[in-house]
Amino acid sequence: xxxxxxxxxxxxxxxxxxxxxxxxxxxxxxxxxxxxxxxxxxxxxxxxxxxxxxxxxxxxxxxxxxxxxxxxxxxxxxxxxxxxxxxxxxxxxxxxxxxxxxxxxxxxxxxxxxxxxxxxxxxxxxxxxxxxxxxxxxxxxxxxxxxxxxxxxxxxxxxxxxxxxxxxxxxxxxxxxxxxxxxxxxxxxxxxxxxxxxxxxxxxxxxxxxxxxxxxxxxxxxxxxxxxxxxxxxxxxxxxxxxxxxxxxxxxxxxxxxxxxxxxxxxxxxxxxxxxxxxxxxxxxxxxxxxxxxxxxxxxxxxxxxxxxxxxxxxxxxxxxxxxxxxxxxxxxxxxxxxxxxxxxxxxxxxxxxxxxxxxxxxxxxxxxxxxxxxxxxxxxxxxxxxxxxxxxxxxxxxxxxxxxxxxxxxxxxxxxxxxxxxxxxxxxxxxxxxxxxxxxxxxxxxxxxxxxxxxxxxxxxxxxxxxxxxxxxxxxxxxxxxxxxxxxxxxxxxxxxxxxxxxxxxxxxxxxxxxxxxxxxxxxxxxxxxxxxxxxxxxxxxxxxxxxxxxxxxxxxxxxxxxxxxxxxxxxxxxxxxxxxxxxxxxxxxxxxxxxxxxxxx
Length: 603
Prior knowledge:
GO terms for molecular function: 4 iron, 4 sulfur cluster binding; metal ion binding; phosphogluconate dehydratase activity. Catalyzes the dehydration of 6-phospho-D-gluconate to 2-dehydro-3-deoxy-6-phospho-D-gluconate. The relative contact order is 0.11. This protein is 38% helix and 13% strand. It has 3 domains: 5-35 and 67-184 and 219-397, no CATH class; 185-218, no CATH class; 421-569, 3-Layer(bba) Sandwich (Glucose Oxidase, domain 1). The chain is built from 24 helices and 14 strands.
């Protein structure tokens, strides 16, 4: 199938504007590959002995280079349900490596925080910058120069983008991302949402709310709503960095085990010493980055990736911005409705056909790049299938037709003709508006604004009845440089209540909303941010604000030029936030990825 002309044009534009940075990146990777061509030659004996001193039965093999040595970068911890299964992975992976004459070592561990645990809490101000820390931690682990390929064990919010950013700076090494899969489905999503809203209205107790939440988030595995974590898994499939179909197979199942074992075997087969070398730097190119964006749009994925995609793309020398995303969104249809954009969760999505169905349909319609280097096949076409066990042997097959037309459709009969990620811009800056979860009758909101400097202020005003009217709620000084750009997840229930009461309500903020943000129209990631004189700092209560996804505008009728910027709140101390002052000081705009590390590196 011929590639859609708009996707072709946008890709060509990205290639052209990335020409210098991509060339510099690939040149660096080539030099580094030569410098690290043979660890027994590069590493002095004392250094090498340190590296395998604790390798036990693998020591002799590593010393003699009898086979490839796989470095494991793990984001294991017991607090994140999705990452808890990783505790058991390294011992198993070492056994599976030996099956094919390879070895495996845990190269390093990265931090991994859960936005679900820190939502609305002080720790959320560390969340975005944890991505930079994860990238740096991955680099520390790989800096030992002991490895021929890399197994990336990470799933959730900032962790996959951070691992990818770190791994790409060692891009001469092949890398495979290995998920653990989603937990089994808990209580119905509508019931969970109902209890949350009742609690926001004071009609449910904390005990009732906690009981509901514990029935939803109840065991090991990824949370089952389609937020940032599961959008990460989708992107790894669209970029060919998983084994095909690995994203949404549940933990502890024979199929999950078979996929992880096969990933280890594959990591031994695609090193530079073999006949099928697939370095990460070659896998993650402009077309792969465009595929990640297309997958985000086609599945209604997390708005957080409007920040993460530009960030990890920069780590590979690729330049992509919100204009590119908006133009892609205009031609990529919405094929999926997964909670919170639909009633079923990722387990239902996987059962209905999942990523194999989505990728097959996109490729057949000319809506994705097939000709990319992947870790699991000759092209992305290998990912248009689903894994299964055929007499205990791992195999792949066509996923067949959609198993649920209320969740998964073809490009000929989509839920929406576009991907639902709109760029809005005007005299209040540039921002993202996710329309795929919002009723079209609410795509344009024009009302007086009420300005807040904290999300706590919004909640207090809601409780006092001060927002019972048509209103555009503006929450500013929430950008990367102000306070680390926390998700403003606590705003979703009260704003949803106001909307259900019949008011015309919208949110405008330079902060982030949850990857599971839903039905309330919102202009998020406003750039430039308020700190430093961005236009949100010039708004005052009562100014008329117009937010329209239909017209692509974010404007006010107020005369901003005649005003002085409001003073930001004093930076808060505690919960380690003071340790991240350097990150806040050096971070760049959300549209560039909101990264201090990349900005300081000049990437």
